[in-house]
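Q: Start with the shorter request: fold the first protein.
A: Done. Sequence, then structure:
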Amino acid sequence: MSGRVESRLAELGLVLPTPALAVANYLPFVVSGSLVFVSGQLPLVDGKITVSGRLGAEVSLEDGQSAARQCAINLLAQARAAAGGDLDRVRQVVRLGGFVASTPDFTDQPKVVNSASDLMVAVLGDAGRHSRAAVGVASLPLNAAVEIEAIFELV
């Protein structure tokens, strides 16, 4: 589809990938009423993790931010699938939950997840503003540096 949001993606030079399939006994997203709950997305490109390891150790803040941005791109791909291919149906990004693999002394998890938040606003405007959590964790699946989940509201 070529709506307002798709035009904005093109302006930003972003191409959303085919949404990743679930790799275990869960769904990539669940629609309940007008809400879409998107399972945690990793920084995957072509099925490969783009940034692995822990912030505060082998992963720089900038690489962590890049990973969070890729997670946001993958979240939008899932949201588009949930919305029947039409991201103009997104009324609001309700919440992002960001998980950052990090050392115990790393405290810049919000700075990492900010790049996902910034992307949502860049793509969706005011509808991209959301509540959020940014949490440090010991490790993530596939040694990913970042994982982000989301809740979207559709019209």
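Q: Next, the second protein, separately.
A: Sequence, then structure:
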Amino acid sequence: MRGFVLALFVSSLAGCSLWMPKPDPTQAWIELAPHQETDLQALAVDGRRLDDDRYFQVQPGSRTLDMRYRFQVDGADIGPDSGPLPRDCKLTLEYDRFTAGARYRLVAGGHGFRPWAKLYDQQHLLLARASEQGCGNLAER
């Protein structure tokens, strides 16, 4: 019985990894890494909307990445007896040296009311920082 449960667990993990496509070696792969219990979504590359909001995969060269970042501002940052405040923000990151076959990591977080996102390479070197494009009801934009 234990063997069956273990086999079922391992096969379910393998099944989850099948949902994410394999990186194309002719493009750059950008993994999204939000901080803690937040939500980071890929929106567009060079103004073109993406079909899958879980990652960016881009042609080499200069690219502009648009992303959506949702997080909560802690009530302590707002005022006494305040509850958490949800933030829904759009960020844009420009980087001019994406390389085919390279893997990048886009890390996002919030500091008070302000969102931030940073692009790192495989050696964990900081390459670029995103700029905030606004926060609010992004569904209306």
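Q: Describe the second briefly.
A: The chain has one domain: 23-140. DSSP finds one helix and ten strands in the chain.
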